Amino acid sequence: MEPTNHPITAKAHTNIALVKYWGKKDEQLIIPQNSSLSLTLDEFYTETSVAFDDTLTTDTVQFDDHLLSAQASQKITTFLDVVRELAGITTRANVITHNHVPTAAGLASSASGFAALAGAASRAAGLTLNRRDLSRLARRGSGSATRSIYGGFAAWQMGEDDQTSYAYPIAEQVDWDIVAIALVLTTAQKKVSSRDGMRLAVNTSPFYPTWVQSSQADFKTIETAIASRDFETLGHTSEQNAMRMHALTLSSDPSFSYFNADSLKAMALIRELRAAGTACYFTMDAGPNIKILCQGQDAPTVMSQFQQVFGPESVVLTRPGNGIQISD
Ligand code: ADP
Ligand code: DP6
């Protein structure tokens, strides 16, 4: 395989999991304990360009205009090693990446980050992967990145090995008016990474086996709700699934939580809005920021409530986003 003689750029969006991935059965290959399902979001994304260059002796990574130290770029170098092995090359690479999403704040920068890196690096290394194989490659960087190859609703089938653990599209063109309102309560980086948090749950939470079972049931329920455009079932089941995931953090040893006081305040407000008749539901990843699921018709009401409480700059309207785009 011959690397390209020019940089390749890829753009990938983050996704919000409606059925969460929380726990691995193979840490090395990132094979999960449960299948997961997500919605790709248009407002948050990563753009990454990669060029393999014979004159380099190490990989260099420019991350949001800062040059990373070798230690800080270790995860990216490890990922590039997977790409090099696939392409049969040893050449080092220049990576330039920009996150249009806060990094490590529970807004899924690892999903868009590793999906974009997988797309740009594989193409720059001379590989032409189909989207299933690209999703398998992105998985090696970060589990949630597996799903960010596709737009709209996507699923990651857990599988049992490298070949069978990949994402597939459920509905790339979402033709119903579903939105996710992101409440950016803090952009501080989390103390417990998703990787460490889920490992602790697998190893110590007595509820872990129940999570695996119930998330399987949630997957089927949401799949059916998408097919029949049943927003209330989709919203309700997503919210339950998120809270069950967070119950694993509370029941780990040592116990920890991704909630902060504002997350709890936001959840209470969503419950109040719902009690007053607005169909809105929350979900939350590994960080205190909340995503509110609602239908487009209700978005102005929901947004104005949250803007009043948390300030206009904290409330970001996102719609279903596209799958990965790779420049030639
Ligand atoms: P988040 O909630 O933002 O996904 P995680 O702790 O799960 O937080 O993942 C953050 C990690 O994802 C970063 O420390 C980094 O290793 C990786 N990451 C984020 N953005 C990028 C990017 N643009 N390119 C490569 N890796 C990235
Ligand atoms: C709560 O994909 O960031 O967002 O595979 O260890 O990199 P690693 O973890 P990561 O975890 C995502 C956890 C989650 C749920 C989800 O996106 O499915």
**Globular, elongated, flat, extended or rod-shaped: what is the shape?**
globular
Category from helices, strands and their pairing: alpha+beta
Counting DSSP H or I runs of 4 or more residues, the number of helices is: 8
Mean pLDDT: 96
| Main beta-sheet annotation | 8 strands, mixed
Give the ordered list of helices and strands.
Answer: EEEEEEHEHHEEEHHHHEEHEE
Provide an overview of this structure.
Helices cover 36% and strands 25% of the residues. With 328 residues, it is of the alpha+beta class. The protein has two domains: 8-173 and 322-327, Ribosomal Protein S5, domain 2 (2-Layer Sandwich), CATH 3.30.230.10; 178-318, Alpha-Beta Plaits. Strands 1, 4, 5, 6, 7, 8, 9 and 14 form an eight-stranded mixed β-sheet that branches. A hairpin with a 4-residue loop joins strand 2 and strand 3. Helix 1 (74-87) packs parallel to helix 2, helix 2 crosses helix 3 and helix 5 packs antiparallel against helix 6. The mean pLDDT is 96. The chain binds adenosine-5'-diphosphate (ADP) and ligand DP6. Residues 46, 48, 75-76, 97, 99, 103-110, 113-114, 117, 142, 190, 193-194, 285-287 line the site of adenosine-5'-diphosphate. The site of ligand DP6 has 14 residues, from helix 4. Its EC number is 4.1.1.33. InterPro entries: GHMP_kinase_C_sf, Mev_decarb, Mev_diP_decarb, MVD-like_N, Mvd1_C, Ribosomal_Su5_D2-typ_SF, Ribsml_uS5_D2-typ_fold_subgr. One of its GO terms (molecular function) is ATP binding. It is an enzyme of class 4 (lyase).
